[in-house]
Amino acid sequence: MTATGAPAGTEHLRRQNTGLVLRSLRSDGPATRTELARRTGLAKATVGTIVGTLEAGGAVAEDDSVPSGRGRPGRPVTLTGESIIGLGLEVNVDYVAAVALDLAGRVKVVETRPVTTVGTPPSARELIGLATDVRSALLASGHTVVGATVAVPGLVAHDNRTVSWAPNLGWDGRKLATELETAFGESCPTTVDNDANCAALAEASHGIAADVRHSLYLTGTIGIGAGIVQDGRLMRGGAGFAGEVGHMPIGDPTATCGCGRLGCWEASIGLRAMLHGVGMQEHATPLQTATAVAERAENDPEVRAALQVLGQHLGRGLATLAAILDPSAIVLGGYFVPLGEHVVPAAAAVLAERLPTAGIHLPEIRLSALGIHAAALGAAEDALAEVLTGALAV
Prior knowledge:
By secondary structure, the chain is of the alpha/beta class. It folds into 3 domains: 8-79, Orthogonal Bundle (Arc Repressor Mutant, subunit A), CATH 1.10.10; 84-198 and 374-388, Nucleotidyltransferase, domain 5, CATH 3.30.420.40; 211-369, Nucleotidyltransferase, domain 5 (2-Layer Sandwich), CATH 3.30.420. 40% of the residues lie in helices and 18% in strands. It contains 12 helices and 14 strands. Helix 4 packs across helix 5 (176-183). The longest helix is centred in the last third of the chain and has 25 residues, at 301-325. Residues 1-8 have low confidence and may be disordered.
C-alpha cells in the first residue's frame, strides 16, 4: 500500500498516466479532455480525474471563457505550472550558471557569475552560493522548487550524485549533490550530470535540434564533450560515460591535455588550444573570449588562418563521430558559436571529405542558439523530469 492507501500497482499506473497527460500538454499544447484522451489513449474518465488533480495542484488550468456542455466543444486544458520550478545549475572552469524553468517550459531565471579568479577552477562554494541565492529568491516569490540538477564538465558516477572525474576542475570523487542538498536544508532533491548531456537535452527540447530525432551536441569550453540524443533520450553507454570525446586520441600528438595525456582532441580544439593558436588572452567567459577573437579575425589574416586550422581539427573528429553515430544533425555550442563563420566551413569540408557515407547522408553542422546557458537549461529540464513522467506528484 502507498501513503494514499492505494495499492502500489494502482498508484504506479496513476502516476504513469499523469505523466502521459503532462507530456502531451507540454509537447503538443492545450487540448480538451476528449482530445487528451485521444492523444494519450486513456479513457476520458481517467483523463478527467487526472486533470482535476493537476488543476488542484496548480499544474494545469481549464479555460473558463469557453462554454462547455452538450453539443459544445469542451474547455481547453492548458499546462500552466508557473509555480513549479526545476533548478538547473552548471559549474565550469571559469563560470557558474543557474537557470530556473517552470513546468510549462518557460525560463523564469537566468544568472551567470564568473569565477573569483580567472584561470583558477571554481570551488564548490561559488556554485553553492549561486544556487542558494537563486533558490531563496524563487521560494520568496512563491515558487516551489521540486528539484535541482548540476551540469559538470566530467564523468558522473552511477548514483547521479558524485563527480567521478573532472580533470579541468580538479575534482575527483566529490559528493556534489550531497553538498548542495545540505546547503538547501535537505529540502531539494539534487542530482548531477555531465554538461554535454545536459546541453544536448536542451538543444533537443528547446534548441536547434528540436526538429530531428538523432542529434550530436559538442560543447565548446575549456573541455570538449558530446551529448548524444536519440528520440528525445540521452544515450549514456554501459557505465554512463558516453560522450567523453574530448579525450579521444585524434588531436595533435604532441599537445598536452588537461587530463595529463598527449594527443587528446580537446588539446587541439578546446578553448585554450584555440587561444594559443590565435595568440590571444582569455576573457571572463568562453563566449566573451570567442567574441573578442571573432572581432580580431575580421581584420587579422593570421587569426583567420589559425581558426581555419582549428576547423580542420574539428572536422576530423566530427567525421570519426559521425561515422560511428550517424547523427541527423551536429550542434556546436559554447565558444564555437561566435566563431562559426570562421570554423564551420573548414570543419564541414573535412567532414564531407572524411566521412565514408557523405555521398548518402551528410549531417548538417548547426550552431547552438541557446548560448552559454545551454547546459544549465538542460539541467533544469532534467530537474523537472520526475514530475513530467509522473514519478513525482505535483
